[in-house]
Amino acid sequence: MSNIIILALLGLVFYYIFKSYSKYTAYSQEAFKNFSVSKESLAKSELGLFVALVAKVAKADGKVDALEAQLIGIMFDDISAIFPEPQKTKGILKEIFAQEKLRIDDTQTIARTLGQAIKRDKAKQQQFMGFLIQLAFVDGEVSKSEEELLQTIAEALEFDPNAYHAIFDRFEEMLQNMRPKENIQDAYDLLGVSEHSDMETIKKAYRKLIKQYHPDIIKAQGKSEAYMQEATAKTQEINQAYEMIKKARN
Question: Would you state the torsion angle of the CA atoms of residues 215, 71, 91, 99, taken in this order, to the nearest 10 degrees?
Fold first, then answer.
């Protein structure tokens, strides 16, 4: 049960760091309307470099778990939607992810390149680094390899060490304070289904809610830390409820 709760807690980590759009418009369809979509151009772009780092953090503990995969899939949708050829872009981003998750020896180089591109934008630095830390927490704990990789990335980005530890400690504390649902009816209510619903209906409701509360890298700019924490808790709660129902059904 504790594993379920932890999993639930950390999937939420995804929605809150990336969900606004009001203060910054650097990542918009207008900004990318003349972008020539190719693997080379995407790999060199800020968002392509970020996807490469996401891949390395996701695979740092040796596997990409189900919730990570689902949230990363939604992230591909969010990013590709701002480019002129969304489907082509999405396919290329998946290629970049698949390629970069297989190696970590180029992590520092990629992070430094991204760091140079966003060195004057503290908001982007905070969002990117925050998302990567959240991603490491999604499976319920941060392994030694994940923490070492995060620190390598933070140093290469020249990210403020105090800000890094503040974000990391905040999510550790959130995880420790999470409590599992004790009542199966509460789990059904949270997903908006009933004990009479079939698993396909429940799965659809779960996916809809996860998509609603996922961390949108494009729209996250401008949100407060309190908002991020609230969203993270909600996503984890949704995942926890779904896992409880699955266990009860099996």
Answer: 110
